[in-house]
Each structure stands twice: as C-alpha cells, then as structure tokens.
C-alpha cells in the first residue's frame, strides 16, 4: 500500500509538471532568440479551448493537440507581427496578448462549459513499467508526458549541439552582428516566437484534453506565468526548468493529497491552493540568487527591438 501511494504521488507530480515543461521550453527558445513574450497564459488558454473544441466535436486526441498547437502558434504570430515587424514594445504586447487570450478563450469556451471529454488512456511501456515503484510512475503515462521528455532533450541538443542553435543564440546575444554576417534575424526570431506559441498551445491542450478532460474558464490557473518565471529563475537552463516544473507539480499534488485525505488543518483552503505557486517562486529565487550567474546566462538583447538596415 505504501509503495502504491509513493508511485501515485510521483506519477501525479510528473503529470502536473508536464504543461509547465512544454510551455517553458517554448519560452526558453523564444527568449534565447532575444524575444520576450509574456503572453504564455493567453496562448495556453486559447490552445486549451481550441483543443477541447476539436475533441468535443469528435476529433482524436492527436487532432485536438494539433488544434491547440495551431491556435497557440497563431496567437504568437500576432505578437510577432506587432513586436518584430511593427516594433511595438515587447512587454506591453505580451501582457496584452495574455489578457486578450484569457478573455478570448472564455468567450469561445462558453458553449463547452461543464461538458467533459472521455479520458485518454495512458501508454504503458513494456518491461520498464514493471520496475517496482518508479516503473508505473514514469512508464505508464500519457503520450504528451513522453513528448515533454523528448522535447527537453531536443531543445538541449538544438541549442548547444547544433549549428542553427548556435545561430539562434547569436541572434539573442547580438542581432546586429548576426545580421552583418548574413543571417536573417527577423525570420529567425519569427521562427522562435512561432515555436514558443506552438508549445504553449500544446501545454494548453494537455490541460483540457489529458490532465482534466473538460473546459472551464480560468482552468490554466496561472501556469503560463509560472512557466515564464521558471525560465528566468532557472537562468535559461533547460534542466533547471524541468526541476522547477516538477517542484511545482510535487507541491501541488501534495496539497491535493492533504485535502483529499481529510486531514484536519486549521488553515484556509485558498492558502493551501496558493502553496505550489509560492513554493516554486521561493525555491527558484533561492537557486538563482547569484545575480552574476543570471546576467551571464541571460540573452543580452532580450526584449530589445531590432530593425535590419535598409
């Protein structure tokens, strides 16, 4: 019984951290290109409602995820047009995108409220899932959980082992230097922004199709903002982002287990619900308290507009 409880907590932690990993990996690539997109919450929300609408209309989980990805990507390209082509302020545009996305998803999702989808069965990996305690937790998961692990490995390889990853980081460090040697800075930044939006859309799709297969206004519940914080406080390091995401998931699941067990704790339930956000921020602040390290890893041109020479 004790092993089953530990397995359940680990599995639930992994699931709860998955949407954060998806969104944060996309945002990390976007920021490595020198673009600061604060609209993750809005892109996640629109991706979630788009995915749910397709699933509710009879689409497969795969087509639902594609719809969420496309919706998030479309939202990010609007942001890209405003900031990269029209040179609007990136912070203001990102905040506007977040607010607009949350409102738009609430409007579109009105007909779908309280209409659940069928649960998507997990995929069991033979032999590995038979490992005691950790096997069922890690290898009897949803397809997007496995995808998030592949995504982390792919982002690490792309940024630090591939030529185009080096070019992308060069664009984030010095766009004028990259432009002077012939690279299309704006096109590369558009690609990074589109990738970030697509990952945010997939993160939203995971929330509404896999995690809790229903649509409810505000179901993203600040995860887009947590993903943004993860990228910065993890000093733009992918593995630290994963650690922070699972930390958030672990604290969230722990407080749910406490509430579900019916333990008598004389604190408001709202305080318990806020603990995952508070604990994640506190721990990430502590591990990133070295200001020199943050400055060393932060893209130099982050948030700065760039206009190619005519």
Structure, described:
- With 310 residues, the chain is mainly α.
- It has 13 helices and 2 strands; from the N terminus they run ααααβαβαααααααα.
- The protein starts with a helix and ends in a 13-residue tail after the last helix.
- The model has no long low-confidence stretch (mean pLDDT 90).
- The chain crosses the membrane at residues 6-23, 35-56, 62-84, 91-109, 143-160, 190-212, 218-236, 243-261, 267-287.
The SS-based structural class is mainly alpha
Order of H and E elements = HHHHEHEHHHHHHHH
Question: Beta-sheet strand percentage?
Answer: under 5%
Strand order of the largest sheet: 1-2
Mean pLDDT, nearest integer?
90
DSSP helical segment count: 13
End-to-end Cα distance, whole Å, is 69 Å
The gross shape turns out to be globular
Specify the biggest β-sheet: 2 strands, antiparallel
Cα-atom radius of gyration: 20 Å
* Helix coverage percent: over 70%
InterPro entries: ABC_transp_permease
Subcellular location: Cell membrane
Pfam family, one: BPD_transp_2
Keywords: Cell membrane, Membrane, Transmembrane, Transmembrane helix
Describe the structure concisely for a colleague.
This is ABC transporter permease. With 310 residues, the protein is mainly α.
């Amino acid at each position: 019984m004790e092993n089953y409880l530990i397995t359940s907590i680990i599995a639930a932690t992994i699931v709860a951290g998955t949407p954060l990993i998806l969104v944060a990996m996309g945002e990390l690539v976007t920021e490595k290109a020198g673009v600061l997109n604060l609209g993750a919450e809005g892109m996640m929300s629109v991706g979630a409602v788009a995915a749910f609408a397709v699933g509710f209309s009879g689409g497969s989980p795969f087509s639902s995820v594609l719809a969420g990805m496309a919706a998030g990507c479309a939202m990010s390209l609007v942001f890209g047009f405003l900031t990269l082509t029209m040179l609007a302020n990136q912070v203001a545009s990102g905040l506007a995108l977040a607010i607009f996305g949350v409102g738009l998803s609430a409007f579109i999702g009105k007909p779908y409220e309280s209409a659940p989808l069928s649960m998507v069965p997990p995929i069991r990996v033979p032999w590995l899932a038979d490992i005691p305690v950790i096997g069922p937790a890690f290898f009897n998961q949803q397809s997007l959980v496995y995808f998030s692990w592949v995504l982390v490995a792919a982002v690490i390889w792309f940024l630090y082992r591939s030529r185009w990853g080096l070019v992308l980081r060069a664009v984030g460090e010095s766009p004028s230097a990259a432009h002077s040697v012939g690279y299309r800075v704006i096109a590369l930044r558009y690609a990074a922004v589109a990738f970030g939006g697509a990952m945010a859309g997939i993160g939203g799709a995971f929330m509404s199709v896999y995690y809790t297969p229903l649509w409810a206004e505000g179901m993203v519940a600040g995860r887009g903002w947590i993903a943004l914080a993860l990228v910065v406080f993890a000093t733009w390091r992918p593995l630290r982002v994963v650690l922070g995401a699972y930390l958030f998931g672990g604290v969230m699941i722990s407080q749910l287990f406490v509430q579900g067990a019916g333990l008598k704790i004389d604190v408001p339930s709202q305080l318990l619900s806020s603990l995952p956000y508070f604990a994640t921020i506190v721990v990430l602040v502590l591990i990133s308290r070295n200001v020199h390290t943050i400055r060393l890893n932060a893209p130099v041109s982050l948030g700065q507009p760039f206009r190619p020479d005519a």
